[in-house]
Amino acid sequence: MDSKQIKFLTIAISLLLLFVSLTQDAIVVNYSGEVRNDSALGYFLIGAIAFLGGGLFEEIIWLANPLCLLAIIYFLKNNEKAVLLSLIASGLAISFAFWSEILGAESGALAKIVSFGLGYYLWASSILVLTTGILLNYKMSLKESLQS
Fold first, then answer.
1. How far apart are CA 99 and CA 61, in angstroms?
2. What was the pLDDT predicted at 59?
3. How far is Cα 72 from Cα 133, in angstroms, rounded to an integer?
4. Transmembrane residues, as ranges (predicted)?
5. Which helix (H) or strand (E) covers residue 30, if one does?
6. Contact 119, 21 (CB under 8 A)
7. Rounded to an integer, what distance in angstroms lies between the CA atom of residue 25 and that of residue 98?
8. b/e burial code for range 20-49 (CB count within 10 A of at least 16 → b)
């Protein structure tokens, strides 16, 4: 498989997983005794302004999305920065799985995370697929440059 095919498959599968994740629930939370399923699309859209409601840490996790976008752009340009950006995004996405609470309301009240939904796992998978494809492509390009 050549570099162009790896790039195409990596980006296509990653974006497909991302778009499917947005149709699912991201997490189940218990906020003030009420258990609710929170939409991945809601988090994706609201995440950019989470800091306005006091969600600094939520904002940091959400930054995985623009980091992935930048990684894709650098990946297409064969820039090595794609590796670092995708690794940081992967770290952020995985670290969210260890959270036990999340901002439940703009008042600053926290909601207990009961479980993670399919939306979270698909979102994290999309980032891990992107990172894996970028690393594989980078490894192949290093191998080709050493053979030349």
1. 11
2. 84
3. 10
4. 42-75, 82-100, 120-138
5. strand 25-31
6. yes
7. 18
8. bbbebbbbbbebeeeeeebbbeebbebbee
Q: What is the dihedral of CA 42, 47, 53, 57, to 10 degrees?
A: 130
Question: Consecutive 10-residue runs of the chain (148 residues): their mean pLDDT?
Answer: 90 98 97 94 84 74 95 96 98 96 83 97 98 95 79
**Residue 63 main-chain phi, psi, to 5 deg:** -60, -15
Whole-number pLDDT of residue 47: 79
Phi, psi of 88 (to 5 degrees): -65, -45
What's the N-to-C CA distance of the chain in angstroms? Answer: 18
Per the structure block, which two tokens stand in for 142?
Answer: 């290093």
Q: How far is CA 146 from CA 60, 95, 140, 142, in A?
A: 38, 35, 10, 6
Distance from C-alpha of 108 to C-alpha of 90, rounded to nearest angstrom: 27
pLDDT at 46: 83
Helices 3-21 + 64-76 axis angle, to 10: 160
Place of tokens 């309301």: 105
